[in-house]
Structures are given as structure tokens and as C-alpha cells.
Amino acid sequence: MDKMGLIVPPAPCRAEIDLDAIEHNARVLLRSARGARVMAVVKADAYGHGAVPVSLAALRGGADALGVTTIGEALELRGAGIDAEILAWLYSAGDDVRSALEADVDLAVPGPGHLDTILDAARRTGRRARVTPKIDTGLARSGITLDDWPAVLDRLVDASEEGLIEVTGLMAHFAHADDPGNPVIDQQVARLHECVAQARARGLDCPVNHHANSAATLTRPEDGFEMVRPGIALYGLSPVDDPGVELIPAMTFSAEVLMTKRLAAGQGVSYGHTWHAPRDTTVALVAAGYADGVWRLLSGRLDVSIGGRRYPNVGRVCMDQFVVDLGPDPGDAVRAGDTAVLFGAGSDGGPTAAEWARALGTIHYEVVTAVRGRASRQYVLRGHHVPGGNGVPGGHREGQR
Questions:
Q1: What is the rounded CA–CA span in Å between residue 389 and residue 19?
Q2: Is 94 exposed, middle or buried (0-12, 13-18, 19+ CB in 10 A)?
Q3: Are 367 and 352 within 8 A, CB to CB?
Q4: pLDDT tens track for 203-226
Q5: Sheet strands (E) in 264-301
Q6: Given 134, 235, 261, 271, which residue is catalytic?
Q7: Which value, to the nearest 10 degrees, does the dihedral of the CA atoms of residues 236, 242, 245, 251 take?
């Protein structure tokens, strides 16, 4: 029911999140890390999967830290009762970061100006800030440049001696980790190791340093850092062609079949009549569109799975719906109320997010994070749908620091 006490029908499209798959993938990544700690990256609402339930599942699977982009994302996890180590790494140098310090959130230092912000917050709150300076080892995105690093290091040493900060370690981000063997990877690793050595020589312990994203976690366990920072692999999607491990995609995006209808040969379908029935046929209307994350660019290029069988989309994808061709004699194979799987694990030969990415000329990261709009999110844990939407029967469960 809504706030007025009216009965509201369920959303006709939904993203089902398999929390057991998240837990499994976390264990796979823990094994791949070969002794390094695992920071599960749950930024962007856990890549569209739901930050709180995914974080709890990742912690159950062996991750002991969480990585987010914004301070707001970190505070959402704290507000849900999650007590694990959390690192936030993207904020403005002009932001007031006192809330992060007060919530025991670790902060990256992505540039010299950000250190001023953190030191000001530490003085004003009386709390020592846990910081992870981010080094630009070659991505040329956020991060302290190698030219700026000596001066920033001087300031870090002074602030540490003053008791304002604790430097937990250094971090960086790869430019080519999804291309194993690219020589830039080795250059970046060497640069971060050199910066860590310089910091330790100045008296900063830097106990936990990290460079590896999902691709490097799966392909470069020998890089010698104390933590890995996987993101997309946690959700069962591999950033490399042959990961050598069994990841399970966690998201199944599906929608209801609203109706079926017969069409005569030559009938055009959807806006612009970009497709005409080549023969008498039956089509089905599926209740999802580009407002829900079904890209219009996929028009005529996607399949759905209904009852374990694939059917092609025909005509343009609309804002709220699209049409699939069932063939001239589908019988009772598809009926109104059936579920059409748009993408999922693919274990039964059904469509996957990776297929969508190939068709769109993009990456599956963008596909799963684009599910939105009216798509409801449902969770499955131990084979059962979880009521309440928080991913844990009976409420949230705290992680352990």
C-alpha cells in the first residue's frame, strides 16, 4: 500500500539481486588476492545492485573493508549500522568533511588541496583523520602527481607528528589493468611501490596500500600490495576475457509480458515502423523501456528469454515498453503475465549484460548501473526472496572492523 492506504500493483519490471552470488564472488576474490585484504567497492549504489545489502553480503564473503566514491555514500552505510572500514575517495577540496571524520570514515587525499580540507576538519573536530593519499601513477585522473608528491609527503609527515592524521597507506588506480601484459601496468606498480618506500623512510607506516581493481585482482596477485580493491567482479562480471575463476552474475533484469497479439504480414511495429512483419506472426509486449534502463540503441538488437527460450526484439524500444517476435505459431508458450528475462546470469543460455555491452559498444559496468526508473529491486538470499528490501532477514547486520 502507498501512504494513502491504496493498493499499488507491483512494478512490471525488476532487478533481482542474488546476494548469495555476491557472497560467492567475494570469496573468489579473496582467494585470488592470495593473502591481501579485500576492499569491496560498492560505489554508485553498489553498481546499481544496492549498497547496503551488497556490502553486508560482501562482508559475509570475506571482504573486510568497503570502498565508495562520495562521503554521502559512506554515511549511508554507517547509517545502516555497518561498522566495517569504509574509504571515500572523491569529494571537493572545498567540502566540509567533518561528518566523515565523526562517522569514522577514512578519506583519500586525491590532491594537495584536499589535505588542507582534512586538516581543517581534524582541528575543528579534535578527531585524528585516517587518510589514504592517492598517487597518480599514470591514469592522469584524480591523484597527487609525482611532481607534487615530495611536498605533500612533507606535509603528511608534519601532520602525522602533530597527531592530526594517520596515514593508513597509499592508493592508486590502473589505466590498463583490463589489458594484462600492457607495460604501463608494471610502470604504475613500480611508481606506487617507490612512493610507499619514500613514505616509510620518512616514518609513515603505510600498513595497507592498494592499486588493484578487479582485473588486477584476478590477473596480478603478485604485485605485493596489502589490499586489493575489486568492483565489477564482485557483481559477477569479469573485466578480462578469461578470468580463470568462476564468477556468478548477481543481477537479473526482467519485465512482465503485458499481452500478446497476432500481426498480419507487412504490419509495421512501434515508432517509425522500422520493422515490418515478414509473415503472419505473434508478438508480445514487454513492460520495460529506456526510462527503465533498456537502451533505445538496442532496438532490434536484443533478445529476451521467456520460459527458457529466446525471442528477438522487433521495432524501436520505447520509453515504457518494447515488442518481441514470438513467431508464427507460438501456441501457449508465452502468455500475459509471464516473465521476460532481459539479462541475467546466462547459465541457461539466456541473454547477459555482457551481450548488451557488446551490442552497445560499451562495457557491462554501464549496463548494470543504468537499470533505473520504475524497475523495483528485489533480493534473494539462500534461495529466498528477502522481505523489506534491506538484504538481510530481520534487519541489518553489522560488519566487523
A1: 12
A2: exposed
A3: no
A4: 999 999 999 999 999 999 899 999
A5: 268-269, 275-276, 281-286
A6: 271
A7: 10
- Backbone angles phi and psi of 57, in degrees to 5: -65, -40
- pLDDT value for 1: 58
* 391/56 Cα distance (integer angstroms): 8
pLDDT digits (tens, 9 = 90+) for 308-338: 999 999 999 999 999 999 999 999 999 999 9
Number of residues that make up the chain: 401
CA-CA distance, 175 to 184, in Å (whole number)?
8
Element containing residue 356 per DSSP (H, E): helix 353-360
- Residue 203: the pLDDT is 98
Closest CA to 284 of 310, 252, 302, 262: 262
Which amino acid is residue 269, in one-letter code? V
Half-sphere exposure of 375 (CA within 13 A, CB side): 31
Radius of gyration (C-alpha) of the chain in whole angstroms? 24
Instruction: Single out the catalytic residue among 43, 91, 311, 379.
Output: 43
Answer yes or no: 43 catalytic: yes
Which amino acid is it at 183? P
One-letter amino acid identity for 178?
D
Which residues of the chain fall short of a pLDDT of 50? 388-391, 393-401
pTM score: 0.93
Q: Judge whether 399 and 53 are in contact, CB under 8 Å.
A: no
Give catalytic status of residue 379 as yes or no. no
Q: How many CB atoms lie within 10 A of CB 373?
A: 16
Distance between CA atoms of 86 and 57, rounded to whole angstroms?
Answer: 15
Residue 300 neighbours by CB under 8 Å, 6+ apart: 274, 275, 312, 313, 314, 315, 316
Q: Classify residue 128 by its DSSP letter.
A: P
